Amino acid sequence: MLYPENTETRTVIDLSGMWKFMIDKEVTPIDVNKPLPTKTELSVPSSFNDQTASKEIREHVGYVWYEKDFTVSNVLKSQRLVLRFGSATHEAWVYLNGQEITHHKGGFTPFEVEINDYLSSGENRLIVKLSNMLDYTTLPVGNYSEEKDENGKLVRKVDENFDFFNYAGLQRPVKIYSTPASHIDDITVVPTVDLAANSADITVNTDFTGNGEVTVTISDENDQVVATADGNETEVHLDNVHLWQPLNAYLYTAKVSLTVDGEVVDVYEEQFGVRTVEVADGKFLINGKPFYFKGFGKHEDTYVHGRGFNEPVNVLDISLMKKMGANSFRTSHYPYSEEMMRLCDREGIVVIDETPAVGLLSSFNFDLSILESDDFTDDTWTTMKTAEAHEQVLREIINRDKNRACVVMWSIANEAANYSKGSHEYCKPLFDLARKLDSQKRPRTYTSIMMSNPRTDKCIDLVDVIALNRYYGWYVGNGDLKRAETATRDELLEYQAKFPDKPIIYTEYGADTVAGMHGNYGEPFTEEFQEDYFRMASKVFDEISNFVGEQLWNFADFQTKFGIQRVQGNKKGVFTRSREPKMVVRYLSDRWNGIPEFGYKK
Ligand code: GCB
Predict the structure, then answer these.
(1) Residues designated as active site
(2) What is the mean pLDDT of residues 515-538?
(3) What is the widest separation between alpha-carbon atoms in the chain?
(4) Which atom of ligand 1 is least distant from the CA of 332?
(5) Any idea where the domains of the chain sit in the sequence?
(6) Which of 190, 177, 345 lies closest to 276 in space, CA to CA?
(7) What is the pTM of this model?
(8) What is the CATH number assigned to the segment(s) 12-179?
(9) Which ligand 1 atom minimizes the distance to the CA of 475?
């Protein structure tokens, strides 16, 4: 799916700004033919939750409504016009001038619809109804229930099956873009690199509508044309190729033109990087060299914006990462904005791209001996009806991010009940689908919860990389770093011995830390404990040869639902929510700036 861009044949109208907004109290039905009965206006893109002082708005569960009135200039009316949502969380019904024009379920991927047939002359009324409800059919997974209040009125509830606040709304840009009637629909770029020869063959496949011919012109970063070709399925050869490298990005531009009767009717420019990704002999290879992941699990989470697009913070986060010597992050626990992915492409930040499959686990059981039985089962895979949503979002994320050089691996799920009977049957078709859809054949993984270990996990055969979320010394044996060190080491050695061909990374490890809290005895929650914890983990990581990456939890403190373990959110950030460093950032910066991107583990 193409990102909306201005080109010589396309115009983008950004609908960011103030939109009318109301929560739906489900008392009087809303008439989509009339202006919304509200005077409240909120800023888009952003979550709605933290933009007002109203607790009722912040904690609302159910439906909300947005309205934006817009006019399209006459010069554009002859063009094909497409309304495009970067995302709408979690389910959207879109009405233009009173007619429903599209519906989309899934809160973290873009969707679009042609609007020419629904436009009126003068002002147009765009109304969006959103649901922020989650249940056992959606991703993420929520525990949904209904109650009646004292007046007999329906009260909807979602108890999140995950550890982040259920922010919602129009959280990413909403745009209208024009194309000619004959137009380019999609472009897929696949580089095949000959590392020894320092050259690459680039296939560029173009989907288009109408009768025309496609030409492709590839330029380098100095705007010098380095190759041209004709055809909607074409391949060009690049000599002296500049590779896209972690922290040292290089982007080529494929200018794709559609010509009808000798006249260029549509043009789109897609940037792409040339690199290889491969797993071999327990190593993760980028451009043929063993790469070491240094970085974070993150969230899209900031003050006031909530989960809403916040570009200055994206820029700052990447700058802070680079200063620390980090080179990567995971889009825990949902696809991030396209703007962030494009930024990572330009900045050379390596990304593990995760679906919103979080909460696929219906019970906790810390008695591992029970889980070790071959036919252990809880009711996760009979209760959860998420297979359809999972497949849909996998298609959407791969379609959206397929050309991004920064994406080196798909994370199919976070902490699913992979120790429970039925998990393999659920996961295998998704791993197969990812392989089939991704023309770049990137490695696939899921991140595994502590209950999934070398003895209990039923799906390890599916993953290319073993990705572990581990909290020894925090959730298990809190405060006891000696025991944590032994447990960390023993488990990693067991994984390595059992699966010698699969590289192992940590995709989560961390300790809640209250910024400014100190203690003479390194107690849990102090900044001293957080540093001791990461020092302990690093020491073990360095002993394990197939251990090829550390992505700690979390980059910054973030908002969650209420809970006795959460004081205004999760405090495992190494930065506060406003991006001030905790003490440990100095230690991590020293460590990571001393670890090279390549060849750290021999
Ligand atoms: C996890 C989850 C993450 C939580 C984290 C924690 O395993 O994947 O979403 O925030 O633990 O801090 O408890």
Answers:
(1) 415, 508
(2) 98
(3) 79
(4) 9
(5) 12-179, 183-272, 292-593
(6) 190
(7) 0.98
(8) 2.60.120.260
(9) 13
